[in-house]
């Protein structure tokens, strides 16, 4: 005959060794001990991808699958589409290599315990794309940013200098000169000289 034990509103604190005494029709007691384990449901795993290196059209990356508040009973397994190079181990961290022209490769982490499971996935081709060699692998991004800022500062300085020079020049031309005698024509000078006699 099979029997069952039901614990309402179960929690992890209910884990432990239980003893039950069974009495048969003759009144003989038979003690039976059994262990009860209660597991929390596995929360949604978090999958972090990190490109370690890009070399010779191959993207070397690391994937880390973590479960918030996970205990020792959580186990991990991996599955990937495409043909990534690397062993799919039963560990939270996975190291793979993806060819630059490979078909889209999606890796899925499955975190589970005896009560439940959760999965998270990542597109490796998309993770490797921003790390592909380009301008920023030759020249660091901060050097490009500093060059642009320097060019902008020089441009602003030139504009300010031109504006001031232009305003000074306008000021000299528009300002009335001090007391300067007006020049006279030859005829005016002769006429002035004759009237003065």
How does this model look, in words?
The chain has 197 residues and is of the alpha+beta class. Among the domains are: 46-132, Immunoglobulin-like (Sandwich), CATH 2.60.40; 136-173. 27% of the residues lie in helices and 31% in strands. It is built from four helices and eight strands; from the N terminus they run E-E-E-E-E-E-E-E-H-H-H-H. It has helices spanning 124-128, 135-138, 141-174, 186-195, and strands at 16-23, 29-36, 46-55, 58-66, 75-80, 93-99, 106-112, 117-123. It has a three-stranded antiparallel β-sheet with strand order 3-4-6. It has a three-stranded antiparallel β-sheet with strand order 5-7-8. It has a two-stranded antiparallel ribbon with strand order 1-2. Strand 1 (16-23) and strand 2 (29-36) form a beta hairpin. The longest helix has 34 residues, at 141-174. It is found in: Membrane. Its main location: membrane. The chain crosses the membrane at residues 139-163.
